[in-house]
Amino acid sequence: MGIQMFSDTKRLLKQLGENELYELAKLKNINIPKEWSKTLIVDLLALNVSKKDIQTITTISLKAKIKPKDAPSVIIIKDLVKEFEDVVAVNGLNLEIRQGELFSLLGPNGAGKTTTINILNGVIKPTKGTAFIEGYDVRKNLKEIKELIGVCPQEAAVFKFLNARENIELFGNLHSVSKKELEERTNNFLELLGLVEVSKRKVKGFSGGMLRKLNLIIALISDPKIAFLDEPTVGMDPRARRATWEFIESLKKQKKTIILTTHYIEEAEVLSDRVGIIDYGKLIELGSPQELMEKHESKNLEEVFLKITGRRILEGI
Questions:
Q1: Neighbours of 134 (CB within 10 A)
Q2: Of 70, 73, 160, 230, whose CB has the highest number of CB atoms within 10 Å?
């Protein structure tokens, strides 16, 4: 097996869940000790399987799941337009996001991603068109919408003179979370995101990555049905980013609807059920990562993005 082929196979294996890796091993009659880490399993399988094997197990896995298209749409965007003076940030956007799916919105800097998210969560009003969240109009029913959603914004929305635990408890109380639930969720989230040891430190001393993790906890402390995660892993080192991916995957298992924006295309490729690519405020491509890679004959989602936009995601307009 060539070095490039081995690298590509390993990358595809990393995208599979542990159950899928074990099923793939079973398919190839490879015995894997249960105590092995995912990293060790991937390394072993990369030497013994082909891309065709991976595609076979992925197809079996998809058929075993309830397909997102079978679920109702919880977010419906209709002819959405947002203008700022002479700039059209969102230009006639139409899109539906289904219950329980993780939907990634990708685009270069200034493409309209954050503007769209801010309209959906009520921070700004659309110029034309509208959007509905579980039937509630973002122009008229913000109170009802805010009870359904959690928002992790790009900029850390925390009180820096409080410690991490105090911040979480403050926002939990604002959402009327019961004392028992608040304590259980706080402890669980701090453990999952590796913030237990620093939970009693004042937030003003936190690194950018630690602030992002805290912001993520605050966004989810009310147990929202729909979570908007706007660049949730910015400022994190690779290890922290991977841990956060695992945390986000755990939200998918809870059947939450997640709308993710990110500049890390690998993040979207690993986590997403579907991806929407927007440029100059328009939706220019839509589908699952695998569908888009096959359609554009690309080895990864970053190559798809480069082909259809003509630029890399961080280049801006």
A1: 18
A2: 230
**Domain boundaries, given as residue ranges, for the chain:** 3-64, 68-309
pLDDT at 67: 44
Give CA–CA dist 159/163, Å, rounded. Answer: 8
Cα–Cα distance for residue pair 82/293, rounded to 1 Å: 30
3-state DSSP assignment of residue 6: helix
The neighbour count for residue 2, using CB atoms within 10 Å, is: 7
Structure tokens at 168: 């979480």
Q: What is the mean pLDDT of residues 116-137?
A: 94
Helix (H), strand (E) at residue 68:
none
* CATH superfamily label, 68-309: P-loop containing nucleotide triphosphate hydrolases (3.40.50.300)
Q: CB atoms < 10 A from the CB of 187, how many?
A: 14
- The span from the CA of 108 to the CA of 311, in Å, is 8
Please say whether the beta carbons of 37 and 56 come within 8 A.
no
**Nearest partner of 233 among 265, 205, 203, 256, judged by Cα:** 265
Q: How far apart are the C-alpha atoms of 81 and 59, rounded to whole Å?
A: 38
